[in-house]
Batch of 2 targets.
Target 1
Amino acid sequence: MSIFKLLADKSWERKGIIGGLRPTGAFDTAPERVALVFFLVVATVVFSLFTVGYFIRMELPDWAPIEDPAKLWFNTGLLVVSSVLFQWARNIADSGSRKNIKTAFIGGGVFAVLFIAGQLSAWGDLNAAGYYVASNPAASFFFLLTGVHAVHMLGGLWVWSKSSIRLLSGSEIKDVRLSIQLCTLYWHFLLIVWLVLFAVLSNT
Amino acid sequence: MAYVPLADQEQELHHPHSWVTKYVWSQDHKVIAVQYGGTAIAVGVVALVLSLLMRLQLGFPETFDLIDPSSYYQSVTMHGMIMVVYLLTALFLGGFGNYLIPLMCGARDMVFPFLNMLSYWVYLLSVLILMASFFVGEGPTGAGWTLYPPQTNMAGTPGHDSGIVLMLLSLAVFIVAFTMGGLNYVVTVLQNRCRGLTMMRLPLSVWGIFVATCLGLFAFPALLVSAIMMLFDTLLGTSFFMPAVIESGTPLDHNGGSPILFQHLFWFFGHPEVYIVALPAFGLVSDVLSTHARKNIFGYRMMVWAIIAIGGLSFIVWAHHMYVSGMHPYFGFFFATTTLIIAVPTALKVYNWVLTLWEGDIRLNAPMYFAIGFIFTFIHGGLTGLFLGNVVIDLPLSDTYFVVAHFHMVMGVSPVLVLFAALYHWYPKITGRMFHEGMAKVHFWCTFLGTYAIYLPMHYLGFLGVPRRYYALGSTDFIPQSAHDLNTTITIAALFVGASQLLFFINIFWSLRNGKKADPNPWGSASLEWQTPDTPPVHGNWGPELPTVYRWAYDYSVPGAHQDFIPQNTPESVEPTVDEQHFDPDHDVSKADL
Amino acid sequence: MALAVVIFLLVIGSIIFHFASPWWFTERAADWGSIDFTINVTFWVTGFVFIAVNLFLAYCVFKFRKKPGHKAVYEPENHKLEVGLSVITTIGVIAMLAPGLFVWATFVTVPDEATEFEVMGQQWQWAFRYPGADGQLGTADTQLVTESNPFGVNPEDPNGQDDVIVLGPEMHLPVGKAVKANLRSNDVLHNYTVAQFRVKMDLVPGLISYLWFEPSRIGRYDILCEELCGIGHFVMRGAVVIDTQQDYDAWLAQQPTFAETQAMAAGDPAAGQAQFAVCASCHGAQGEGNRALNGPKLAGQSAWYIERQLNYFKTGVRGGEGDTNGQMMAPMANMLASDEAVRNMAAYIESLPDTPATPTVTGDVANGASIYSRNCAACHLQTGEGTWYTDAPKLAGMSDWYFITQLQNFRAGIRGLHQQDFYGEQMVSMATAMSGDQEYADVAAYINTLR
């Protein structure tokens, strides 16, 4: 039912049970997934506002771009691999098999950890080049945006580590399937966010 | 994709075993609601006391020596921030949202009870951090609740050392708590409604809380973003918002930041925040009015559309708080237009409340007194908003007492009257006892008449041009002695209103033990929360089987029915029966009309 | 029933209050009648709605209150009625908004003939700059601000040389001429408000905001800061005097240009020393002060403060009724015939060796510390050294008994209330904010520890 049709419903005219066991208008999926999608929208708002702030701050007269560390390309690669591994784990889980699932799922997280380590090392490169967080507004935004992204990644890794423990301790696939699916969705989201941030940071 | 059946899925509940797990580390939404509500009201009392201290200073500037300029500005700041965020947002969403959503949706609990519990404890942490700022360093920040840079970080502002850091930290923690709670409310409303309960059968309380929660989820990020960036400016010396400035003769090590950027971010949160408070109030008051008028809410669909329209529009009006901020003046055209457009759905809501009373059978009991009082104060506050939204009229009135009077009328008095209406209305369900009707009515008269005596004259101080946020007016040629006298009168009214709130506390605590035992549905209400098998509802709410809903929430005085309401879970084929034990249509608890 | 009557009475009462109220917009002193017109339109439209809807509400409550045997009508919605109400509301909103937008268009479009002036706000003072004969203001930057160039005018900019600098918070404007105010701040947000002009705008550090108006009535009006700017917000006052063109020109001619302020010779301590002998009789040979003769310590005080006070004594801004000791200063100060002589004296006093005065006051140091750091330090600094930036003199190591006398004078209105004592008025408010002699002594005792 379209949302307009739903909202036009003269509900006082219709008595009796409407819909099946599920309430009409509910999404046909697990509540955890609905919650995650809402959270992703919230996170999108957060990153969008940071980016808008970035563009507005850029227009002010004292703006001077900084040279982004080349390492970021490598880090981006790590994150892509991480996302691909998560997708692989998800495909395995959907098919109900167990084969390689530990490799894929845990490998995905390990690459994410490597990504964060890579980001830290990029910070080190910037420091070595004389850029600290307060040196210049572009540098401030670089540390801020990469930092906020990394914090989101750490949050994901916390969930990932809990699921990994369950996976390693031999839980049934059906018990961890939802976790794997949601982790994968979250990782893809963070990959897209990173690609956008990277594009913004390196083109300005 | 795996199909997960929901409505028929029996949720696994964490059943408590000891007093501590039952009342402290509880995952029951009703206990969490009471925890949220209690904490919010407690911190609200702190803010109330701060406002009375300010009023004493303003009304008797040379008589009382309770606060100096520094603590005056700290009181201004903390009063505003506590009332808006830590009291109203927390009480409407954390308190009423938590209590009513699962009950009105026919669910056993929120979808994520553990997260819900966590939400409360994180909220409590944010309150404690905020309160800690009273005891650290120079005390809380005195930058005004809007926390405008650059003064937040500068020596001329109290609490620029630690107060501001704790404030920003507390807000960030609050936002985390709100997000945990908010995801719960939204997903519960969407996914956890019981069988037959379509969205358009939901009571307006749920609609108001649902849309307000969505606003909160999408607006609080703006506050989070500005808080994080300001923390960077404060602690790490960046220049996001800090331009080159001179602090007591010494240039600070900042350059090029934009204070106006902060204001845009702040109000991108701040304006939806107004509706985060207002929309739940709109919803709750609709249900109170409808129940006690024994009439369906008039124009239910229009009410839902108006809630959604107001919620959507609230994201594109923010800069009407910034007409005189020095932003590009052309923004004024756009924001004045959007702001006045929002008046149309808001006015429709008012018409529909009044039309709900039209040809009703109005039981004038205490909750209804507060609800009707709300209509009056909201009309007043809404209309004065048209002055401030219309950009040129804001030029003389901005930053005067007119603004103070306007937003206290519309965001202070009106939601608080709804809160009292709702607290009295649902008190029998929450506690299983009736409150003392007479005391509640005295409380109403004191609050309603007292606040009008405070804020009606205050508008006229604003017309005159008396500036707000002044510790003392000193000698100013255009402010006559009569205005100073008026300030004294306002203070006396404020003290009276403040003191009369004791009646509320006495009432709810006294009635807890001594109130008459409440019927499960003392008001004869059609909505689902009154149909629970136990009063107060036990953990799990619904006994062995979840309810099934057959009709909308407003079947009052339906022609041909035996009694003047039909509960939502009454099948259409079953003739409504009158259960004299539980409901007597001619028994009126408001017999003690004053 | 009672509720219906009360709502009815509140509506009537509100109307009576409105007509009986002596509080209404101040008499306009700028050509913004269009703003007042928009206000009136909105006032009467909203006033009508307020009365109509509330009377209807009272009627409903009265008519449809619960009565035995009465039953409510079942009416889920009435689409026609709702649409009708929406249309009427929309028309009302347009009626209010349309004139508002037209007037706003006028406000944002500064007429070509408007002459510019600059308003500078800083914690917690106003200052003003007028373009000189070239009609153009020189560029300025906060980073160029120094004691001798408080506007931060760019010395390289030829347009700035003839700019007229007004350091006191009182400004003048000619009647009947459109003016554009360029607004700048050196530190935090401020707001330039003159109630009688109807318009206001924030001063934002880092950018130049503006507003324009055409003064229409001769008189003197208060300038208030209306954006919270720190604990001195409520004492950030100024005044604007609307003059005839002739009076305005005469006033403007008396004010120094930027070039003149920069060329002004620094005071010569040696020249000042020659005339100090008279001072020494009461203030001590080294300006160390003499309690018995009511001569406060001078040594250590900044030259700008001494200079200002001497000029105040000369012109009677200080030393008025009730200030017996201050009155003695008037003939003394008048011995310094020229501005140059005053500057020389101030320069000499600043050069005197500064030995902290002997404490004479006892009080609760802890309480004094709390009061001082919360309310005084914002201007006089935590060290008690004072700074030209906030017009705050040095307190640390100065005569504590004199500090208390002055606070008492401020509180009693003996000092600080003269219309030309722009900076003293702030201290009247601060002295009043303290409870009295005991707190003064506590603060003095604390200041004695700052040395």
Target 2
Amino acid sequence: MARTFVTTAGVAALTGVLAALSAPAMAQYPDRPIKMIVPWAAGGDTDNIFRPFAVEFQKHLGQPVVVANVGGASGTVGAREAQKSAPDGYTVYAVHDYIHLTFYAGISDVKYSDFEPICLVAATPSVLTASAKTPWKNWQELADDARKRPGEITVGATLGSTSHIFPAMIEKASGVKFKFVSYEGLAPRMNALLGGHINLTDSNLTQKGKVEAGLLRFIAIASEKRDPEAPDVPTLKELGMNIVYEVVRGVLVPKGTPAPVRAKLEEACTKATKEPAFAQSMKAQGTRVAYLNASDYGKFLDKIDSESKVIMTDLGLIKK
Amino acid sequence: MLDLLWHGLVNVAQWKYLFPLFAGTFIGVIGGSLPGVTITMTVIVVLPFTYGLDPLAGLAAMTGVYVGGSTGGLIACCLLGIPGSPASIATTFDGFPMARNGEPGRAIWLGVWASVWGGLLGALFLVFLTGPLAAIALEFGPWEYFSLFVLAMAMVAGLTESSLLKGLISTAIGLLITVVGHDPIGSVPRFTFGSEFIGGGFPFLPVLIGIFAFAQIMTDLEKLDGSRGQPAQSLAGVRLERFSHLKVNIEIFRQPFLLAWATIVGLIIGILPAIGGSASSVMAYDQAKKFSKTPQLFGKGHPEGIIASEASNNANVSGSLMTIMAFGIPGDAVTAVMLGAMTIHGIQSGPLFISQNPDLAYGIYAAYILAHPCMLLICVALMPLMLRVTSVRMAVLAPVVLVLCVVGAYALNNTMQSVYVLLLFGVVGYVLVKLGFPLAPLILGLILGDQIEINLVRAIMTDPNPLLFLTRPISGVLLLAAVASVVLAIWQHLRHQNRVVEEEPDF
Amino acid sequence: MSIGRDGIAGLVLLAISLVLLVKSFQLPSLPIVPVGPGFYPAIVLSFMAAASALLVLQDLMKGRPAAAAAATVTPSRNYRLVAIAFAIVGAYVVLLPLLGFRLATVLFVGALQAALGRPQTARQWTVLAAIAIGTAMVSYFIFERYLLVLLPRGAWTGF
């Protein structure tokens, strides 16, 4: 009995000490480095956008923001890791639209609503890109050819992810039929496109150099208006398809993160996205800075999620 | 072209570029020599510094890391029997036995000098033939990749003298490991038995470190007798012997064909994205053994094995640099990070890169060339210190190395998952070694497993006609070579069968 | 005709490949991929099953005097130590996320050192502790500070 008491007292004392140690820490969040989970490999598109962001973000947070690349299984390993992290603000999750798609495709059971929004950071318009080994100079020629031989034009895509959804939306809007071939990641897709092993793929304006050299052709861009970086590329809207498709990237935290911590992160994010240096590096990534605050970003995520569900249902990819 | 290169060399020889290059090479050698710390991880460490630097200074630092890291791996290979980085796997096969035979200095310096010569020979191709060679990469569609990988496995399965059958089973085990988890095409979970742990799959790096580090350390522990901790028997009494750099170089240049062929193998594997240094080192090793006059000495501390592996993994770097220079397409994670750094500085990568930015392009070539003498200097300075590892007691060495392996596995993607995989495959690797299964084919199966499947399915998705594997010229030739390789291996095996007595496995 | 080590290994591998082969046929396939996710594993597994079966056959056909000769020259091996070492590494891996990297590493390096060579004097114990603490601190410092890897913190200790 006495021994139990001693143990209990010991545990209580220890807990007290730990609580005392951690209490002031909470008061002045953040007091140690923050881990930013990027669910893809280093050097990829998402990594290239969030690394410059982390530089600005840490400037306004006052603590280092360390990018942790948690890659694997179409980004779902990183999603799961972020979901089960402690909701203390020391783990933030860099996300893009794949979170909705992998959920509906049944690849992962992590949903966007397992997180709290902090802010939207950037949007990268998708560009339908053709190999120079194909005969088409513009969308009209491509569409005519595609109608003549349905299901024969090959499109490289990460199945069930953004690079698959975007061409699939074009299929639906124009009534053509493509043949999808699995190529995960932009670099392997570019390799195959340059070699003519696939005809089309989804890319972005970072590939402009190859277009100028005549190795690729931009067919159409999925933004609202033509991009000043590539003024000759028509938008899909001009071509009569009501498609605006941008890969949007933002920051989330695990559900249950305290409101003051979220407010601090949101404030730092707001300031970081306004930095001119950040805008500059985004321009190099064929991306625009697209800031939304936490509550707008939350609504935006709801909207994207219901749209994704519709698209995945239309494509017959839905599992839940 | 030569004047551009000369201009580049003079340019990079300035302190503001030479210092980052030297520092990058130094960090690369250190990172490469620590088992578990990959070149990718090391290059990411350098990345933030490059934001503030002149673009060429940053790229020079990264090139230095790449070259230094590709060489640094051999130190752990020779001294611990554990590859310091995946790119130097095959160096372990002969480097460690040579060190154990009392010649650690010779083993390491053969490797370092072979790296220097292989790397510089690769530089010749890089500077003068980038355009045409990089074009080869584009000719490779899914059919060609598939056939190439089949050839690679056919070659390596025949590596083992003792049992061809066990070599084949090892390959199959390697392939099977990559199949577990989410499938690479549609992310369907395979063979997970409902477990989230298995569902995460078995990433290459923790499996590799697990198999090698545990197999090595545990077989050493078997030989420790009881409670007194003496040095590992395998390295007991090994002192740095007297060796001469001249002799080592003569040894390398006595076989110019070996050096050239290993370099070409490394270069070609480097140009083709998706496989990288680890495959090139294993394949060059295999080639060296096939062409050698003394194949029976391989695996027992044969200099040819070290030369082939190290020359090819440094040549592999020049190959990977080619596709990024020619097309702006990264061939591996390291060049992907380099490309990211270029983009941040607003440099438009792509086919016009070399003609639009000749200063920068030739600056990178110059940095690549100058990284080799830097690496040599660093090795000269560090080696006496590194060689003292051989006098550390096993009781101290084993836990420290294991901590490094655990941290390295964790750092791969910052999850405990990889650490559990490390431990699991530590046990598997130890058991396999005890049962006499060769590790080289297993490792190649691991490296290629994913890629074989992806390219096979891609080929079928693009065109369902299976005859394309035979009728596409490059693919057909590669498959023919694969068949020839297996036939040759069986024939060699039958011829040797009477002479070779199956040895008690003793890793 | 008796079964040896190779034969047993072959049988185990054969069993594994057959079980997984059955599993591979049950995998669901995607509508847009012409071959299902079980296609490639089935090829690998059939190959492995065939090779394992051959290995068993080869082992059964082989005479066994060589094994006896080999056993006599094998030096005595300390398998107990190997088992202890594996157990300590296992404990380390389990404790890592609970105690945090720093504490777990100190314990692990200390324990494995003691298991491999039990210190006799107070001085040796001090050296052991110094190495344990030194390894943990130096690796923590290098990885966290310079290599930008946030090592696991303890779920129990928050440290």
